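Recap from last week: sequence in, structure out.
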Amino acid sequence: MGWWHHGWGLGLGGWQSILLGGVMMLFFWAGLFLLLFLLLRGLTARDDSFRHASGHSALPILDDRYARGEIEADEYAEMKRVLEG
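Predicted structure tokens:
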């Protein structure tokens, strides 16, 4: 028998180490779940805010591009037809 069998070990034994291990495992999984949740929420929130940040749909943007002369009349008409579906 080694010295750890006589109560001179690391301080925890039996049910105490099992309980502490279980609590630590619970914290690990809860932390991992929280991290994944926040990551997914951040990605979807960023994507959603990007879509709705300006408050414009694609048609006003298309109108602005045509008004600035970035696209020709035939391109404008085709893109507008596609967007209006």
